[in-house]
Each structure stands twice: as structure tokens, then as C-alpha cells.
Target: Oxidoreductase
Amino acid sequence: MDNSSSGDNLLARLEAKGVSRRDFLKVCTIAAGAVGLPAWAGEQMAEKAAGGAKPSVIWLHFQECTGCTESLLRTSHPGVAEVILDLISLDYHETLFAAAGHQIEEAMEQAIAANKGKYVLVVEGAIPRKDGGIYCQVGGKNAIDTLNRVAADAGAIIALGSCASFGGVAAAEPNPTDATGAPMILKGKTVVTLPGCPANPYNLLGVVLQYATFKTLPKLDKLGRPEFAYARTIHEDCPRRPHFDAGRFAQKFGDDGHRAGYCLYKLGCKGPATHANCSLLPFCEVPGAWPVGIGHPCVGCTEQQVAFRVPIHTTIDVERPTAPGTYPAIHPDHSVVGPAAVGLGGLAVGAIVGAGVVASKKLTAESEKHEERE
Ligand code: SF4
Model:
């Protein structure tokens, strides 16, 4: 990946692709919002990136489906993926690299040497421990050794997705390879975990840019998750929440309640036990593009003890079944409820969604104009 281009070149390249400076700034602002930083922090992140100071990222793949990489690349508008990839210097990534074999191994060693103590290590996938780690080897080295090697000189370490955070699907019972997450291998080191199956790319971008710009990491919970993105449950900011509070539930897939957008709790929704910002920061910059938004119960993928452990359609206990007094009144005649109706917390982050949607629309419009010009 190009690590030498100046900021002017970066902006010129993006503008040539139909992405304006304003849209570039918006992507940075959304990324800042994803980790709880104000808009001015996004502006500083953009300035730094536009100045050519792109953080070096070394990205390791272990036991996984590559879905987290796919979610980064499959944004609804190609311009957004390009902005994200232009904001970082992706110096090693097994999926995206054109090189192979000894060439790619050398590239990793060069990236480590050139950015010692400063690069960001992103881990995608679980690490198998059974039989000396023989079930995941790249270039003759097992995942445990490679992870320890690259983590030793990293400035920041991010476990991206549920597999890297705590084992995910690879660690589901009976866990035949004794798979686990990066924090369990890198004991004593700070590992930012961004669980999700897949993780939201803006949460990753926010952490990377915060580290690159301010040399800090977001405030983490006891599982290493950034509090701003993972402190609240899906249930607290779910657009279907007023239906839950009013006792309106889909009883089975495709029934009238399901078609009307009613609560999915009785279909097994794990939203009440799942901490994540999916409802507020949709995937692919498409409003409503998240499991509950498209009519499927939340499976609890950001929780170590829920996804891949509790059956998808099994209902769970709800800790606080009644709505807090700060929630707006429930109107029984509402069949569909927007995110703005679910409370003050939702409103704050809803602004981020709005900004993302506006940015996405703008990007699309800019691209169409660009295509017309061509
Ligand atoms: S149970 Fe699920 S669908 Fe129903 S309000 Fe909670 S998070 Fe939303």
C-alpha cells in the first residue's frame, strides 16, 4: 500500500474519485463520534491524515471468515471504503496484499522495523492453542508465535471482531482447537476489543485515528471494549423498543406483527443482553442496515457468553423490562418508530447516524456527478 503520498495527493486522489474534502471530513467526524470524541476531534483527525501522517497498520488473520475485512470493504458507496483505506497505511494485510510467500513475510518485517513502537496491530480471527497451535499456521509459523512477535513492538493493539476478542465461532463448544481471543494470549498488554460479527468499520477507524492523532485510546470497559460504543445495550436504543414496552411482539417470522416492525424479543432477540452501537451506527452507511433493522433478532455477537452459545431463537431474561421515565410516551397507533423516539442517549448518537447518512447520500450524489462528467 502507498505510504509515501502527501496529504495534498490524498485529497486530490479522493476528489478525483468524487469524494469532496467536506465528505472526507464527515467520515472522520463519524469515526470520532464512534469512539465518543466531539466533532472538533474528527477535524483534527482529518487534518492530520490530510497532512500525510497516516498510521501504519499491520493486520493479522487467524481463525475467521474474513467478514470483518469484508465489512470494511463492502461499504454501500465505494468512496467510503477508499476514504477509510486512504486514512491508514495498511502495510501488511494477507487478504488485500498482491504479494505472497517470502515477499509478504519481508514486507511485515520491514513494516515492524520502520514503525517500531508506533504501528497499530489489528488482529482478526481467533487463536488456536491446542497441540502447540498447529491448527493455524502462516508461513510455517503458528498464530500464537506470530501474534506475540508482532504485538511485542506495536504501539496499540486492536482485536477486531468477536473471534479476535474472545474466540467467537471458532471457540464455540466443543471448541476443538482450544481457540481463544487475542487478550487471552497477550496477557498484561492493553488490547482494545471491538467484538461484533462483523465489527463496525467506523468503530475501528475511530480507534485507529484517535491513536494516530492524540496518542490515546478510548476509555475501555473491563472486557477492553470502548465504552462509548459498547456501554449501552441494543435494547436501550432499538427503534423497536416502544413496541416492546407496549407489548407488541412478532410471534413468528412473516406474521402481521413481524411485517409491521414489532419487537423481535419472542423470536429470540438478544438485544436486552447485548452491548453494542449497531442500532445507532448502521452498516454500509445504509439506514436500518443491521440485524434487527432488517427483521432478524439480534444474536448477541458482541457478548462472549451469548452468541454461539445461546441458541439463536431462545428467549433470554430481561434485566429491566420497563422503560425509564425519560422515554417518550408510547403511542399505540404507531406501527413503525424511528430512532429519534428512543431516548436521549439515542438522540446523541442518532446525530452521528444522521451525519453518516447525509455523508453517504452526498458521496453518492458526488459520485453520480463525477460519472456524468466522465
Ligand atoms: S427485544 Fe430486540 S427487537 Fe425488541 S426492543 Fe429489544 S432489542 Fe429491539
Q: What stands out?
A: The first helix runs from residue 7 to 16. Residues 234-235, 238, 240-241, 244, 263-265, 269, 271-272, 292, 298 surround iron/sulfur cluster (CB under 6 Å). Residues 282 and 288 are 6 Å apart (CA to CA). DSSP finds 14 helices and nine strands in the chain.
